[in-house]
Amino acid sequence: RSALARNARNLGGMKGRGPAGTYEAPTREYEGGVERATTGGFRRYPRLPEFYADYVALVCEGDRYQQARGKRARDYYQALREAGYSTNPRYEEELMVFYRQIGCEQR
Length: 107
What we know:
The protein has helices spanning 3-8, 48-61, 73-82, 91-101, and strands at residues 22-31, 34-43.
């Protein structure tokens, strides 16, 4: 598990202020396809259920990520990236590695 998952109970790399405050951590951002190291403020949660509820609210209740709804696997991750969830141009490829590791079938 990452330090973000262990220390902030944030499994999705969600930035901002969470119900338990903010956790500062090193991260990487991409601007114009160029990777740069930086520090980000990530949402901190007291317990995992609060993280899951916040993630679902972010993706399912707002307009920003509506193109991801109903999609699976690579298509879901790509729609999130295209809507601005991640600046990583390889976001969906990196998450598909995890997706396969937990035993989900690839689409």
